[in-house]
Amino acid sequence: MKIEGGQCDDVRVLSCAPAGETGRKYGMWVLDVENPGWPKVIAGQFAMLRPERFGLTLVWGRPLSICRAEPDRIRFFFQEAGRGTAVMAGLAPGEKLTLWGPLGKGYAVEPETPTLLLAGGMGLAPFVEYVLSHPAPQNLHLVFGHKPELSCYPFDALACGRGREAHREEKPGDLEAFLAVLDERVKAYADGLVLACGPKPFLTAVARLGAKYGARTQISLENRMACGVGACLGCVEEDARGHYAQVCKRGPVFWTKDLKFFQGAGS
Amino acid sequence: MMDMRVNLGKLSLKNPVVTASGTFGYGLEFSPYGDLAKLGGFVVKGLSLKPRMGNPVPRLAETPCGMLNAIGLQNAGVNAFLRGMLPQLPWRETAVIANLYACDPDEFGELASILAAEEGVAALEVNISCPNVKEGGVLFGQDPAQAARVTEAVKKRAGDKPVIVKLSPNVTDIAAIARAAENAGADILSLINTLSGMSVDIRTRKPRLANVIGGLSGPAIKPVALRCVHQVRKAVSIPIMGMGGISSAEDALEFILVGANAVQVGTANFMRPDFSFRLVDELPLLLKKIGAKSLDEYRGSLRLD
Nearest-CA neighbor of A13 among A89, A81, A82, A103? Predict the structure, then answer.
């Protein structure tokens, strides 16, 4: 009996470099590893990465969103946020890491539906794969909110036919202006599809707008997890029925209507 | 190839590699990463009579060479397991071991009777050592009389299923608990469960687990686990499943050297999901490499002179 899941392989690091000219300043990195022959990736899926360097000290792999899957490489885009990602930032070409994936549920792809992509900061990562693998990018519109310079993000490669805009938060008041933009855009996509990835306050704002305008909305969660395969029960999120659902299996991409956290977002 | 079969009394395993409760889901989660039938056995996530939601999040924290968990025995309940999951498991090819959790001896007995009727269940592992639940849990495992009561309650209703009692390291004298379980009819002992621990964040001034206290597992606890297995081996004559921080074939052999009949793998399943499947292949190779004649010859051959 087989159930859906990824595969586990020991692969080599191809490169790990700062993201853009100022990526180093913000601890933002682009990591490329060998593609061990994954048959298929759905944008929004993630993988667990455990560098050999973790030794016995760091026991968990680190879950990272798949930024891009190409025949010869899998690309990840991550920011240093703790001990594990700090070690990963120092990975050199040729180093070994254990990679298991692709894992979880990705975003809905509806080629003919006008689709609004809302990304906050590192939340841009899954939308790289989404845009580049979408069968009809002329139906996509990307709104991106960020703090570090735009050059730190893989934004330029993302051609979206219905529009592409980046909003940088630099001074007080920028956030409110950005939220007003989000309100307008979600309103315009009330009959379309709204997909979001970013920090939880951002996702909460998106969920609220989705509910306000009746837009079908998906968000991606990044709860702390140990195994990535549905076993440890660490990454759970309460669903709309009041049950704990594993983010790694039922998610990381959820319809907002299926999560309790976002149930009250409309009120 | 070296014969890796082991007999733990009535429980026969094709090899000594068993995955530990709570680290291997219900088995199916790991089926994409290896052939479940290849394992000596697997112990499923702790089952209770009724579904349990478990503790609030955060439930996990990574610590140096280990991790803390306070899941609180979230599970779908014994009936959901028997109806929905067990039929999908390769129980004819490998030992599917049910882990039982209950709040009192009567409830333990009731659970045992339900599971004893199932052909697909190879053995019952009694959790008298969970540190993460309010009622029962580790309390049963900290007092020899209580441990004996629970063991007797399960044994009475377990039919011909071997009863494994899982011991806590959070005690003054683990050998005393082990003897109590043995005298109460336990067929096998498994040890150790997690060590009670805690982690805090100096900036937010909050504990890292919502439950405040959790169970420590991983390589950090291996020396404690080895010591416990060593002490229990000297105290009882029933078979032992040793566990605690096994993350290589070498680690597994350490437990066998001090007298474990089989081992359980826990946190290492999180280090890579194919770990236990690989361990099955690596163990006989390593035994041969270090010059052991057989698994039986090597077991308990610790030189204390």
Answer: A89
The catalytic residues of B are 130
Burial (0-12, 13-18, 19+ Cβ within 10 Å), A256: buried
| Residue partners of A81: CB distance under 8 A and separation at least 6 | none
CA angle centred on B246, ends B245 and B249, rounded to 5°: 160
Query: Between chains, do A61 and B270 touch, taking CB under 8 Å as contact?
Result: yes
pLDDT band at A179 (very low <50, low <70, confident <90, very high): very high
Place of tokens 């008298």: B128
Helices (H) and strands (E) in chain B, counts: 10, 16
- CB atoms B69 and A234 under 8 Å: yes
d(CA B278, CA B297): 23
Asked if A244 and B74 come within 8 Å (Cβ–Cβ), the reply is yes
- CA–CA separation, B275 and B24 (whole Å): 11
> What ipTM score was computed for the predicted complex, to two decimals?
0.94
A263 touches chain B (CB under 8 A): no
- The amino acid that residue A95 corresponds to is E
Q: How far apart are CA B139 and CA B66, in angstroms?
A: 24
pTM of the entire structure? 0.95
Q: For residue A27, give the amino acid letter.
A: G
pLDDT bracket for residue B136 (50, 70, 90):
low
Tokens of A28: 């933002």
Tell me the β-bridge partners of B147: none
Of the partner residues B31, B54, B267, the one whose CB lies closest to the CB of residue A1: B31
Under an 8 A CB cutoff, do A1 and B219 touch?
A: no
Q: Map tokens 């539906």 to a residue.
A: A113
pLDDT interval class at A1 (50, 70, 90): very low
Residue A215 CA: distances (Å) to CA of A74, A192, B139, B188: 32, 7, 51, 57
CA distance linking residue B293 with residue B39, whole number of Å: 22
Q: Which of chain A's residues have a Cβ under 8 Å away from the Cβ of B71?
A: 232-234
